[in-house]
UniProtKB/TrEMBL annotation:
Cofactor(s), by name: pyridoxal 5'-phosphate
Similarity comment: Belongs to the class-I pyridoxal-phosphate-dependent aminotransferase family.
Xref: SUPFAM superfamilies: PLP-dependent transferases
Protein known as: Aminotransferase
The enzyme's E.C. designation: 2.6.1.-
UniProt domain Aminotransferase class I/classII large: residue ranges: 33-383
Length: 395
């Protein structure tokens, strides 16, 4: 018997990293021992108090039942307190916060709630591939908007406003930006809210990187006057608290819009495991020492990544924020894929080609900071050794 695949999947490919990890696994089984500098999965543990809170709650006999789709009040209150302290944004924990099983899941929740065939959605190029996939799955049509180095990886809102936006219902934005590490300031956020208001577009701000290597006050798009009318914001504990596998995210914004997302979510998944919720409360109440120590590790690692990029011959902006370093490829390579493959097959080091994030990333690579200094030093040594062997072979 043959079963046809739903048409909604015709434009949706397997996630790049899912494919690449299988290839890397095959190379490892062949004895290559690949150093993976591709994926931004934090390698450090959460704070010990967070793990202890999980353990205490899991040992109780009454914490293993199904949970509310909205999360327990303690979690929503902790999320509201976090937003007030860190972003200066006051949220009603009862109505303006919806806990999620990770913010990636929230991307599909939002898309399936508000988009359908005939709608258009603005997608950053380069940007997180999940935005495009979610648009296709919802039946909507994705429209790229360009981000370029010449415009500091910010959209040209004036040029964008000249396009036919009559069918655009939603626009994805993400600052600090992944993959380029660009931070946006309050002035740009104000322009962005004004743009969305003028064109009747729902802005969805994906905001998981605001604490990583950011020397400025963390920014929330919801802090802009008037933003509540046109903005929903996704956030996550994955990067800020080393809890990627725990799947703790949130959606914040207008109560009526969140209620509609909850209507979809309640038919798709379930409530978060209660011990994870209680551990998340502990994480959200950590003081500034946690973020300072986390960033000290990432700063030291970033210096090694800069050295690695110098060795390859890449230039880069030292003021990037987030879990990655974004860099244009040196002359002599067709694109980032070519450089990535050369390093993978010749030096057994995997670095992400920028083209997976959109055509504007074709001539770039992205290096993750989610490896120890020792692993980064080993990757640097392998690349230098591969270069020496290549030079010897050329003589």
């Amino acid at each position: 018997m043959q079963v046809s695949v739903a048409s909604r999947l015709q434009h949706t490919q397997e996630y790049y990293f899912s494919q690449k990890l299988r290839e890397i696994d095959g190379l490892n089984k062949a004895g290559k021992q690949i150093i993976n500098l591709g994926i931004g999965s934090p390698d450090m543990p959460p704070h010990p108090n967070v793990v202890a809170a999980l353990t205490r709650a899991a040992e109780l006999p009454n914490t293993h039942a199904y949970q509310s789709y909205k999360g327990v009040p303690a979690l929503r209150q902790a999320m509201a307190g976090w937003y007030q302290r860190q972003y200066g944004v006051a949220l009603d924990p009862e109505a303006e916060i919806l806990p999620l099983l990770g913010s990636k899941e929230g991307i599909i929740h939002v898309s399936m709630t508000f988009l359908e065939a005939g709608d258009e959605v603005l997608i950053p190029n380069p940007g997180y591939p999940a935005y495009r996939a979610a648009a296709h799955l919802s039946g909507a049509t994705p429209l790229d908007y360009d981000l370029t180095a010449e415009n500091n990886w910010l959209p040209d809102l004036e040029a964008l406003g000249q396009r036919d936006l009559s069918r655009v219902k939603l626009m994805w934005v993400n600052y600090p930006h992944m993959p380029t590490g660009t931070a946006a300031d309050a002035a740009f956020f104000t322009k962005l809210v004004a743009f969305a208001t003028a064109h009747n577009i729902l802005l969805v701000h994906d905001n998981p990187y605001s604490f990583i290597l950011n020397t400025e006050q963390p920014q929330s798009l919801l802090a802009v006057p008037g933003a509540r009318e046109v903005v929903l914001e996704l956030n996550s504990l994955s990067k800020s608290h080393n809890m990627a596998g725990w799947r703790v995210g949130l959606l914040a914004g207008r109560a009526d819009l969140l209620q509609e997302v909850l209507r979809f979510k309640s038919n798709l998944d379930s409530g978060m495991f209660l011990p994870v919720q209680l551990a998340a409360v502990e994480a959200l109440n950590l003081d500034e020492t946690w973020y300072q120590e986390l960033n000290a590790h990432y700063r030291a690692r970033r210096e090694l990544v800069f050295e690695l990029l110098d060795t390859i011959g890449c230039s880069y902006d030292r003021n990037q924020v987030g879990l990655f370093v974004w860099a244009p490829i040196p002359a002599g390579y067709a694109d980032g894929y070519a450089l990535s493959d050369e390093l993978l097959y010749n030096a057994s080091v995997f670095i992400t080609p920028g083209g997976i994030f959109g055509s504007n990333g074709n001539n770039f690579i992205r290096v993750s900071l989610c490896q120890t200094k020792e692993v980064l030093q080993a990757a640097l040594g392998r690349i230098k050794q591969a270069q020496q062997l290549s030079a010897s072979a050329a003589d």
